[in-house]
Amino acid sequence: MRKILGVRCFLDLVFRHLTARAELWRPSRAKGGRGLKLVWQTLVVWEIWKKVGIKTYMAPGSSKEKKSDDGQATKENFINLCNPHLEKMKEDILYHFALGTGTHDFPTLFGDVKFVCVGGSPSRMKAFIAYIAEELGLGSPGCDYPNICAGTDRYAMYKVGPVLSVSHGMGIPSISIMLHELIKLLYHAKCSDITIIRIGTSGGIGLEPGSVVITRQSVDATFKPQLEQVVLGKTVIRSTNLDEQLAQELMQCSKEIGQFNTVIGNTMCTLDFYEGQGRLDGAICLYDEEEKLQYLKNAYESGVRNIEMESSVFAAMCNLSGVKAAVVCVTLLNRLEGDQISSPHDVLVEYQQRPQKLVGYFIKKSLGKA
Ligand code: URA
Q1: Suppose 305 and one of 208, 265, 271, 360 were both cysteines; which one would form an S-S bond, judging by CB atoms 3.0 to 4.6 Å apart?
Q2: Is residue 356 within a helix (H) or strand (E), and if so which, with residue range?
Q3: Which ligand 1 atom is at minimum distance from the Cα of 203?
């Protein structure tokens, strides 16, 4: 399956390359040249391919062989950039990060990054970098971590050693913009073997508050493991699967920590916090409690254990870029018991530290420091 999808991705690139070249071939058109014929033949093949092709596709990460210290050949996975136009640009401005390839040396600044943790709030991502610095023995007491994106207030970014911590705001549009620029940043920096983990909060279904859910698949509000996106007026469907092995490794880490309940389950990603998640306490609600509970029970029966608002596009974009990815969210409440997040502030603060602890331990272990 991956092979077929890889071929399709390749043909996509060939198609875009040839149509870009068509401009250059224009003189031969008047003479009915063979160049134009070839372009049109390619277009026809492409249209047929699109009609019969599979609608969801995942790109394999592009990889290169390298020799390890003991002389063994291992594969190095680079970012699979699904955009041929970028190669033709002299400079790439990552506007929402206030960074650019013309003004910043990406390989020097970010080339050693191996782990990227993303989460909604800037202050939580700053707290995470201080925590991970301490855990990896890279911090010093009272050390302040500068915001790499200080030139903008859209997103915040912090780095310590091989770990990058980036905020993404709330909802699919916000995390999507951040991920476009993050993936390009990692590509321009020539990073390899990257793991990206979203650490966040969510509403649980049938779990005690404070439980941590490691996402198996992100599903939409109809429980399908897909993201529907409109591109050039057409709906495209993208896969929202996540790395199964990474999820299992994180689960093992949680067992080793042994401090809080952790499960692997599906995560429902919605477009909204209120009606989209079946709440009764928004400004608008045109259903009753019975209908709400039936919906949440159906979600539970389909394998959903928590609800949040970013995982689908996160999974889809990481899939297309060939990056290993996971979603680890704590549940702030059990939605079968209510809608309002009413636990005391200190309890919520402790809950929010759980995904950080788990992912911090995973990074430590991966670096042989646990
Ligand atoms: N985030 C969500 O999207 N939903 C919740 O219920 C809690 C956090």
Answers
A1: 265
A2: helix 345-366
A3: 6
Nearest to 349 by CA among 141, 210, 208, 155: 210
- Binding site membership of 163 for ligand 1 (Cβ less than 6 Å): no
Residues of the chain with CATH 3.40.50.1580: 85-193, 199-370
Contact predicate 279/340, CB 8 Å: no
- How remote is the C-alpha of 177 from its chain's centroid? 11
Report, at the CATH architecture level, how domain 85-193 is classified. Answer: 3-Layer(aba) Sandwich (3.40)
Pairing verdict, β 212-219 and 195-204? unpaired
Answer yes or no: are the C-beta atoms of 119 and 60 closer than 8 Å: no
| 124 among annotated binding-site residues | no
Q: How confident is the model at residue 61 (pLDDT cuts 50, 70, 90)?
A: low
Residue 148 corresponds to which tokens in the numbers above?
């790499």
Ligand 1, atom nearest to 333 Cα: 6
- Report which secondary-structure segment, H or E, holds 251: helix 244-257
Architecture of domain 199-370: 3-Layer(aba) Sandwich (3.40)
**pLDDT tens per residue across span 251-272:** 999 999 999 999 999 999 999 9
Degrees, nearest 5: CA angle 256-259-260: 110
* Alpha carbon nearest to ligand 1 atom 5, residue: 203
* Predicted pLDDT at 336: 98
Task: Look at ligand 1, atom 8, and give the residue with the nearest C-alpha.
Answer: 202
101 lines ligand 1 (CB under 6 A): no
Count other Cβ atoms within 10 Å, centred on residue 37: 12
Whole-model pTM: value is 0.84
- Where b means 16+ CB within 10 Å and e means fewer, 43-66 reads eeebeeeeeeeeebbbbebeeeee
Distance 339 CA to ligand 1 centre (A): 9
When pLDDT is cut at 50, 70 and 90, the band that residue 140 belongs to is confident
